Amino acid sequence: MSARKVFSGSTRKCILGIDIGTTYAGMSYCLMEPGRIPEILPVTRFPAQDHDSKIPSVIYYDRAGKIKACGAEALQESVVEQAIEHRWEKAEWFKLHLGPNTSLPTYPLSLPALPTTKNALEVFSDFLQYLFYCAKQYIVDSYPSGSALWIELEGSMEFVLTHPNGWEGGQQARMRKAAIRAGLVPDTPHGHSRIHFVTEGEASLHFCVMNGLATDPLRLGNGMVIIDAGGGSINISSYRKVPGAEGDVFEETARPQSVFSGSIWVSSRAHAHLRAKLHDSRYAGDVDHISDRFDKTTKLRFQRSDLWQYIKFGRPSDKDEALNISYGQMKLSGEIVAGFFRPSLEAILEALANLAPLSPVSSVLLVGGFAASDWLYSELKLRLKYLGLDVSRPDSHVNKAVGDGAVSYLLRRIRVLARVSQHTYGIECLTLFVANNPEHRARKPIRDAAGDLMLPKMFSPILYKNTPVSETQEYRQHYCKMKDDPTQLNSVKIQLRCYRGQDPHPRWIDVEPDQYSILCMVYADTSKIAQGLPRKFAANGAYYCLDIDVVLSFGLTELKAEIAWDEDGVEKR
């Protein structure tokens, strides 16, 4: 573990790590003072809540879209009563609505609808604004001359937002917009540069290394898998220490996995079971209450499938032998309750199988709120023992692992030198028509500016899925833009596409059109070089050709795409 170094800056700075989870949110911060060793601390005071570092990710809006309650305040009995009386709308699990559209069909159950007056970005922004307010109050109240300190820090504060492993540039862009709307930073290039992103998996790595977890396996050169089991998503990442590197330098050993099988799906399966069980009984109207009691008691205590489980929900006079209800509590077999958990376990095991080969890995660390489930922990430990994997879970503060790790990520006490590409990235282009190629004959050719027969809808990969990518490495492909008028080459626009399918060598966009998505548009002003392009001649007459490269890099956790060209012997981008 890297020793913390004295902050060498000349002025005080602050980093705020914000982890908005599906069910709970938390923040950690680091106040860096010249000449002192930085310390990462959690924000532990929130309205309507005892000393705790997590608050529920919940907002109540009135019918006009005005915020009425956030976080722990939204769960107060008096607030819930008002919400029912005034028909307020509840926003929960809203983070999942920000995710990629391609992932929506993978959600095991339907998501709660957003309030009628709000979209996902607006709800996320409102909750960010609330958290930022709480962070301000906490720092102002916790330090001498706190108000003056906040004024000093606010204009330069750096923010790290966490997100599931599977999220990409599109989701990061929406989160950045939400942060600007929430007032965290101004909508300027400098303001944008103060917003950073890290995957929940990588944040967990920072937390584990920072706290000396799995030190022995890493020191011996073995890899480790981190399972960050949260309310909505379960993020699975694998890392190993780079041999021979100085300090804490790591690399991913496989493409990170993210499955939407967190603890909320256990609750949802329990709710569906209770609704079916009680639908014709006098307790049909109590399903939501009984499900809530299961969520807050039975689910948390569940350990063994061979023992009866109990949901205490009513008065001692509540009895119904046919429904296994007596003395105000419902009895469920342990095997039925295990059935609520089992799909989440199987999803984790399947994701681990996708990390294969696991030969360099010797240990698995289970962190996150769902890690508190004794049943999940014991079953994982049992199943993975036969693969030679040692499963452990830290006892202290696993629910703030991502928040602390987010701050540590920006402090750069450890480095992830190489990551594994999630998908295949490239662009659509034309390819020369070959008459004796069956794939070509099945498609309709067109003529380009030079008069050659070409086929559209060709996918040209630049970076393939499962490729180890270092933070300094670039991937580039050369292309030629051809037009019969040079003014049409004064600017270039490229659509960067992502292929999410299983084909290791995708070639045609029209084969699996649903598996291709546009990640971003890249524009270049090439007017200067376009003016001097030489005229070329072919069967169709004169044409002009502009040579460009499309360049991809993953310097940190964000994809960077550029157009490059040669201008007077100098590469421009």
Keywords:
Actin-like ATPase domain-containing protein, 8-stranded mixed β-sheet, ATPase_NBD, about 575 residues, alpha+beta, Nucleotidyltransferase, domain 5, 30 strands, 6-stranded mixed β-sheet
Shape: globular
Which class best fits the helix and strand makeup?
alpha+beta
Q: Separation of termini?
A: 39 Å
The percentage of residues in β strands lies in 25-35%
Query: How many strands?
Result: 30
Outline the biggest β-sheet: 8 strands, mixed
CATH topology of the largest domain: Nucleotidyltransferase, domain 5
Q: Provide the CATH architecture of the largest domain.
A: 2-Layer Sandwich
Low-confidence stretches: 102-106
**The top level CATH class name of the largest domain:** Alpha Beta
Question: How many discrete domains?
Answer: 4
Q: What's the mean pLDDT score?
A: 89
Layout of helices and strands:
Elements: E1 13-20, E2 24-32, E3 40-42, E4 54-56, E5 58-61, E6 67-70, H1 77-86, E7 89-92, H2 120-142, H3 146-154, E8 158-163, H4 169-181, H5 189-193, E9 195-199, H6 200-210, H7 215-219, E10 223-229, E11 234-241, E12 249-252, E13 257-259, H8 263-278, H9 287-301, E14 309-312, E15 325-326, E16 329-332, H10 334-353, E17 361-367, H11 374-385, E18 390-392, H12 401-411, E19 415-420, E20 424-432, H13 438-441, E21 446-447, E22 453-463, E23 468-470, E24 474-483, E25 491-499, E26 516-525, H14 527-530, E27 536-538, E28 541-553, E29 560-567, E30 570-572
Parallel strand pairs: 1-8, 8-9, 10-17, 12-19, 17-18
Antiparallel strand pairs: 1-2, 2-3, 2-4, 5-6, 5-7, 10-11, 11-12, 11-13, 14-16, 15-16, 19-23, 20-22, 20-25, 21-22, 24-28, 25-26, 27-28, 28-29, 29-30
Helix pairs in contact: 2-3, 2-4, 6-12, 8-9, 8-10, 10-11
